[in-house]
Amino acid sequence: MDEFLARALAGGLALAVVAGPFGCFVVWRRMAYFGDTLAHAALLGVVLGALLDLDFGIGIAALSLTLALAVGLMQRRRDLASDTVLGILSHGALALGLVVLSLMQDARINVMGWLLGDILSLDWFDVAVMWGGGAVLLAALAVLWRSLVAITIDEDLAAVEGHAVERARLGLMVLVALVVAAAMKVVGILLVTALLVVPAATARRFARTPEQMAALAVLVGAAAVVLGLGASWRFDTPSGPSVVVAALGVFLASRAVPGRG
Hints:
mainly alpha; 11 helices
């Protein structure tokens, strides 16, 4: 195996391990539009990184965190629906990023690479950061797990039972924002939400408990990474989209297998 393919596989598996459990909450709490909002706004993070001479990943992470906090605060307003808030931030940030990018004549930004992902360009430092950062994100999720499951079932009942509802909700948004930022280089802006949603949706039919669903989502995501990279290598197709297509294939195949509903 060529070394660049080994790096891509290691990085893709790191993302699958992290995206699986978080994708379950994205599916349970119907946060796919929130993920899309972060993904669309990522281009502005790339542009800000170029303007401030920062690593693009840092720019994306900073903007994603800012948007997550903004969404959490704006959702407290009763005069704006959640989808309205997300629509304003999503398209506003994307449009601003495109406008600023058009004014940066000397900027060298591989827009297609960020749109579709560039997993084959990962180096071992990127892989180490993904595994290390992923471990931190999963540890934070483990701390919030019981509260998040409780508020997913019923927020009022969770509050009565003593769970910090607002803290758990905002914490999930921040953690998902970081997962989305980490996934950009692997599958790109256009496809990042799919890697969160599709494995979790596939696992949902076969799981008896939330923990089982999270574990199955990790396995589905890992299978998608292996199959997608293999197809990309064999047929010379874009690697990021190939991973998502593989996840879609596993999802469609799962529909033919008897599940729990």
